[in-house]
Amino acid sequence: MKGQPVTSIDATDIAIVAEGLVKTFGTTRAVDGVDLRVDRGTVYGVLGPNGAGKTTTISMLTTLLRPDGGRASIFGHDVIDEPDVVRQLIGVTGQDASVDEKISGIENMVVFGRLLGLGRQGAKRRGLDLLDAFGLAEAATRPVAKYSGGMRRRLDLASSLIAQPPLIFLDEPTTGLDPRTRGQMWDVIRDLVANGSTVLLTTQYLDEADHLADRIAVIDRGRVVAEGTANDLKALVGTATLQLALADAAVTDAALATTEHVLGTRASATPERGHITAPMADPERITDLLIALRTQGIRLAEVSVERPTLDEVFMTITGHGTADPQTEITGKVAA
Ligand SMILES: Nc1ncnc2c1ncn2[C@@H]1O[C@H](COP(=O)(O)OP(=O)(O)OP(=O)(O)O)[C@@H](O)[C@H]1O
Ligand SMILES: [Mg+2]
Q1: For an engineered disulfide with 219, which of 48, 81, 159, 285 has Cβ 3.0 to 4.6 Å away?
Q2: What is the 8-class DSSP label of residue 205?
Q3: pLDDT at residue 284 in the model
Q4: Helix 149-160 to helix 179-194 angle, to the nearest 10 degrees?
Q5: Ligand 1 atom with least separation from CA of 95
Q6: What is the CA(315)–ligand 1 centre distance, in A?
């Protein structure tokens, strides 16, 4: 997996360029003028709710769908004019696993390797190495029908890597996985980049983009509505949200005023329950706030700091939510 120079990509340090990509299905503009620029050797996150246009965008970048407008190139090769070259430079792991249930993990790897032009022995050797790297060595000879969801995802990813592509597309690689398996997947993705690959991944989870991606594009209804590092995006909503539960709800107004004064931001309150919520750009200020509240004799029942959720990022950027409560995974469960 070491970064062997591939002649056709030497000329550019830009892995993906998309300009004004458009795809319509009937009256739906699934992708409505998307621009992207992904530097070689980075992880790029495409973040958006169900139906935002993530998979459709990937399908155009990977030559599976022809754009209705705009253009895109992979390491300088146009996806419409040079689809065969583009296909040699990429690996794709789809939202729906493409592995064959009836045969074993290693047999799947050999099938993919053969399709990509490897010899049988070479495909088997590399297949076993990859299965081992993804913790599937013991399950290698078991039929895939008996794999768990997380094992299937890892097999799907392994199969897309058998030709050692310089650019890897991962469409929601961790949706539906438990936290531990998600963590393993993140490690695998980091290893790929450490070994010289470029990765574009889509996700519905801000924390996933946050942990993995060098840069993130937020897409909504087929358009890029924000682009930048995770910190850039979080700065839009404050880096975190401070939650205060007051011991006595009667002093909510006073506590709210103090919170806004000390943090220098607008806060909101639910007076009947004595809860205050405030965006917090600078976590250091929390100490000042706690001292100020104590000085005023305002006692707290609970203090917590929560990272912004995808929904909050969306609300801030687009003025509407992601319309899918399931996407909120870093916030606490609604009371
Ligand atoms: N083959 C198709 N025919 C008709 N409409 C489609 C087709 N593929 C996608 N769409 C529509 O295009 C829009 C974008 O879909 P897309 O699959 O790209 O979203 P997504 O961001 O990948 O969503 P998800 O998070 O649910 O995977 C949706 O409104 C979807 O219904
Ligand atoms: Mg999708």
Answers
A1: 48
A2: -
A3: 82
A4: 10
A5: 27
A6: 21
Instruction: Please tell me the distance from the alpha carbon of residue 94 to that of residue 141, in angstroms, as a whole number.
Output: 23
To test the pocket of ligand 1, the residue of 29, 32, 55, 201 to mutate (highest count of ligand atoms within 8 Å of its CB) is 55
What residues form DSSP beta bridges with 28? 25
Choice among 7-21, 40-54, 61-75 with the minimum mean pLDDT: 7-21
Q: Which ligand has the shortest distance to the CA of 59? A: 1
Query: What predicted TM-score, i.e. pTM, was given to this entire model?
Result: 0.78
**Cα gap 41→34, rounded to integer Å:** 22
For 260-281, how does the pLDDT look when each residue is reduced to its tens digit (9 = 90+)?
Answer: 999 988 888 888 889 999 988 7
Task: Give the count of beta carbons closer than 10 Å to the beta carbon of residue 256.
Answer: 20
Q: Which helix (H) or strand (E) holds 327?
A: none
Residue 28 neighbours by CB distance under 10 Å: 14
Helix 310-318 and helix 230-237, axial crossing angle in degrees, nearest 10: 70
* Cα angle 154-160-165, degrees, rounded to a multiple of 5: 130
CB 168 within 8 A of CB 91: yes
Q: Ligand 1 pocket, 51 CB below 6 A?
A: yes
> Which residue has its alpha carbon closest to ligand 1 atom 16?
53
If we measure between CA atoms, which residue out of 232, 218, 215 comes closest to residue 16? 215
Query: Encoding tokens for residue 203?
Result: 């996700």
